[in-house]
Each structure stands twice: as structure tokens, then as C-alpha cells.
Amino acid sequence: MHEPHIALVTSASRGIGAEVAHQLAHPGTHVIVNYREKAGRAHAVADAIRDAGGHASAVAADISDESAAEAMLAGIRQRFGRLDTLVLNASGGLERDADPGYAMLLNRDAQRRLVTLALPLMPAGARVVFVTSHQAHFYPHKAVPMGYAPIAASMRAGETAMYGMRHEFHRRGIHFTVVSGDMIDGTNVLTRLQGPALEPRRSAPLPSTDEFAAAIAGAAQSQYHPGIVYVGGSEYLRTA
């Protein structure tokens, strides 16, 4: 009997993270649904995966809290002994009044620490997927919505920190992919910041949560190990 494939998705209680968890769920995969506060939602995601015949569990951990991140990885080690896929979906900072310090803690420092903790559990051939937005990926070379600069700067710093670990990834035989997406139709914080004024400037529709999640899950499972995947925003990318 083959060992199960173990996949951890951060901030997976709702939105893109929850949909990624669903799309990663296969009979031979156990999906770990990480959440910070929304226990009911996270357990509902895990329950839905199990009801569909998959394997999943919900694990609470605020990844910006070092001891909580360590405890989560220790629990994964004790239960499974390995981690095959790590999807770094957690990002934010606007909920703390755009505090640049908190945004950098979450989007750079916490992500880097979580990967460092996870690496000893990841065998050769494992995957790390870093999720970002076009507005952060191309920061500061393109303008961003008002109020989003601290988030863009911190997510760009997080991506740069991941690139700084590529030598270690290569040494361990771990594949690393960045998935950068345009604003998500109706749900993304950037859409809320720009509001209705966004639409006249876009001739192409914004990607949906399902489309973005499918790209992330695809990057995590692709046999071609892409270095970067862009989702939507053809107009944005042409001028980037």
C-alpha cells in the first residue's frame, strides 16, 4: 500500500485556500486545512473532502506565531512523518489597519519560517507553492490601489525571501513555484479597495476563485514543475 501524499494549505478555511484544499483532494492524498480562527469553516472544508471520499483534517495555527507554527509542523511530523506539498496561501495585513510591520511579519517572516520548519519533513520531489497577486509580484514597478502598498511590499518581500531559499530547495530536490493572480472577481481585497471604478478599465473578465485555485492546485501537481504561473490579467501583464 502506497503512503498517502500529505498536503498542507495555509489559510484554507475559506476563499482561495478552501478551494485549493478541495482541488488537491484525491483518494491518495491527505489534505491538512490550516486555519487561524475560523474553526467551524475549516472543519466544514475537511468534512466536505471526507464526505466526497477524500482524506483531510483541520489544524489550527496562526503562522505568524512562531510557537504555533512549530506545534503544527511537530504534529504533522508525529502523525504523518512527512510533508509532500506546502501551499503558502496565507497573506494579509489590511485587517490590522495596513500596519506595515504586521504585514511584513505575516507575508515575509512567517512564510519563510514556516518553510524552514517544513523542509526537514519534505522528501525529494516535494513541492512548495507561493501564492501572490500581480500587484505584489510586480511591486514597486506598477502602481497599486490606495492602501494596498504595505501588503504589496510585504508579499513581494515574501516572494523574494522564497527565491533566497532556492539553493536549499535545489539541494533537497524540492520544487518551488510562484502563482501570481490578478484581482479575484468579487472577493479579493483589491476589488473592494478599487470598487466599481475598476470595471471600466478592464475589457477582460477578472478570474474567479475557482480559476485561481485551479492554477494553484495545478502548479502543486504538475509534472513539469513550472517556476511561475500567471492567472488572469492579460492586460496587466502586457504593461508590467
TrEMBL record:
The answer to whether UniProt assigns keyword Oxidoreductase to this entry is yes
Q: Does the keyword Oxidoreductase apply?
A: yes
| Keywords, ordered alphabetically | Oxidoreductase
User: Which GO molecular function entries does the Swiss-Prot or TrEMBL record give?
Assistant: oxidoreductase activity
The cross-references to InterPro entries, in alphabetical order and at most eight, read: NAD(P)-bd_dom_sf, SDR_fam
**Which Pfam families does the record cross-reference, listed alphabetically?**
adh_short
Q: Which domain of life is it from?
A: Bacteria
What family is reported? Belongs to the short-chain dehydrogenases/reductases (SDR) family.
Which protein, by its recorded name, is this?
A: Short-chain dehydrogenase
